[in-house]
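User: Predict the structure for this protein chain, please.
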Amino acid sequence: MTDSLTSLSRRRILLGAAAASAVTVAGASAAHAAPPTAPVGGPSPTRAAPPLLARDRIATARLAGGPARFQADLHERLDAWLAFWSANSPRSWSTPVEVEGTVSADGDAFTLHAIRVSRDDETRDAFAAGRADAAHLATLASLHHHFPSVRVEAGGALRVTDGPAGWTGSAEQVAFAVAACRELWGQRGADATDWRERVRRAGHATDPASRSGWAAFTRASLRRGLRTERTDHRR
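Assistant: Here is the predicted structure, written as structure tokens:
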């Protein structure tokens, strides 16, 4: 009898242990299979970057070197910029026929090297990165009119990043404004402390360090650089 009870007790222990083991394994398997639950208030999943668009033109101009991949907003802003530049260029020039430049890997920045137009049945560089002339400053002005960040690279190339334009007071904007005052507005003694006052003396009606004033100043500087300031152009 004792042996029977002992055997039964052992059997119950073994059965209980087996059942507990099965529950443990099942629970572990379920925990392993289930995806982790994000903690309440934790960071949201990272959104995928917007797809880049392959484009072989900016406005009317083909891209030298073939199609490049842009973020949609940057390409749209570049279209508007080149149309603006062309609208304020000499009437003897065609609309731009070719633009030479490079796009950043993320499609959010563009570095300009050349703008080419036709004149007298010849294709010419209306803007060239390595040529320090009035057209270079004029093109720099046109980019400042449309972009918040414009940087002059080594060799004279102009790099822009996407975003709404406007006066920010950045070092790049001030450096351009001083150079424009000296070279395009006839204010040779202009510096970072007095360029705004000198521009006003030269006939600019609004404060160039305001949103509307910056737009007007960059537009007027573009026209002065391309020698079209007396021509009525669309904005």
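Confidence is low (pLDDT under 50) at residues 1-39, 231-235.
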